[in-house]
Amino acid sequence: DPSLHYLLGVAAMAGKTEVTPAVQAHFDKAIELDPKFHQVWFALADAEEKAGHLDKAVAYYERKLATDARSSASHSRLGGIYQNVGAYPLAAKHYDAAIAINVRERDAVLSRAVLAYQVEANPARAVALLQSLLEAEGPELRISERKTIGTHLAAAQLLTGNAQGASDAADAVIARDRIYGPAHFQKALALVALGRPGDAVPEFTKAEDSGLEPRELSRVLFFQGWAAWEGKRLQEAAESFRRGRDTDPRYTPNWLWAAAVATRMGEGSVAAQALLDHISTDPLEYARDRQLGEWWAPVPPPKPLVDAMTEALSTEAFALAMNAALVIALF
Fold it and tell me: CB–CB of 98/108 below 8 Å?
């Protein structure tokens, strides 16, 4: 009975990820008895994926699909692997295949929505996908999943130009969990878009108090500084950008906008030196980095920054140093 050997193999794994010779022997016997017993391939793929052996995992998921073409879970898992290694077109292909088979494959729907608005610049599709998850006929969701979906919905709504819809989506998440940092972050961004940067500052503070990793905290501090810039509170902006640089020097926007603030405050020589100092942090590391998730937000258009620099370049004696620094940083 192939089912018996399959179950014996699963039992021999005892919840671990290592495929021991005993486990492999049972799985091999199941396939020998029934070459189409595709559950074995998924179990092996799952174990190899959890062990970090992604090449083996991909091969096993593909063997699963060769014998069970309608395995939406296998497509979803393949999408996740390709997304994690930055192969976004392949990830999207597998997510789309999973959704075509099963519109309630929530992991695939959520991940496809994230790719749509964070990678493909298609927030409208992201909104449609995320709303389908929250509809009454959508899949059953845990509270944690609803918070994640709602936060992504707020971010995608904002990118479609619907700032009020973004604010409402964030409020719905905060109503479930008043200390959920990503929702406060997206709420703050929506308030800035609604022309209320002063109201955004407390939301950024709540996001900041969420126990973040340095990279995420640096991003929050940058957008907090940007909100202060939008509200023409230059001293507050300068402090937020400074804290952001100290938290994670690799997050380039903090350096650029801190320089813009310094020029507006009449400290252009300081701005020029800071930009030159930033070169030591390898600005290309920021260019190579792409972190998808609930804390993601597109960096604001650089026109205000360029305008401030251009004005300083045309009037100050340190123009040569700033010009060189700005070219390197913006590149």
Answer: yes
The pTM of the full predicted model, rounded to 2 decimals, is 0.85
Four-point Cα dihedral 131, 159, 166, 225, nearest 10: 150
d(CA 235, CA 226): 12
**Length of the chain measured in residues:** 331
- DSSP states of 48-112: HHHTT-HHHHHHHHHHHHHH-TT-HHHHHHHHHHHHHTT-HHHHHHHHHHHHHH-TT-HHHHHHH
Residues 241 and 225 sit within 8 Å (Cβ to Cβ): yes
Structure-token pair, residue 26 = 């049972």
Is residue 107 a contact partner of residue 87, using CB atoms and an 8 Å limit?
no
Q: Per-residue DSSP letters for 169-235?
A: HHHHHHHH-TT-HHHHHHHHHHHHHTT-HHHHHHHHHHHHTT---HHHHHHHHHHHHHHHHHTT-HH
Burial class of residue 326, CB neighbours in 10 A (0-12, 13-18, 19+)? buried
- Cβ atoms of 281 and 297 within 8 Å: the answer is no
Query: pLDDT tens digits for 63-79?
Result: 999 999 999 999 999 99
- How would DSSP label each residue in 276-318? HHHGGG-HHHHHH----STT--PPPPSHHHHHHHHHHHTT-TT
Asked if 27 contacts 5 with a C-beta cutoff of 8 angstroms, the reply is: yes
Q: How far apart are CA 186 and CA 203, in angstroms?
A: 9
Other CB atoms within 10 A of residue 329 CB: 19
pLDDT tens digits, one per residue of 123-145:
999 999 999 999 877 778 999 99
Residue 87 corresponds to which tokens in the numbers above?
């192969």
Are residues 149 and 134 in contact, defined by beta-carbon separation less than 8 angstroms?
A: yes
Backbone phi, psi, residue 124, to 5°: -60, -40
- Of 31, 294, 66, the closest CA to residue 187 belongs to 294
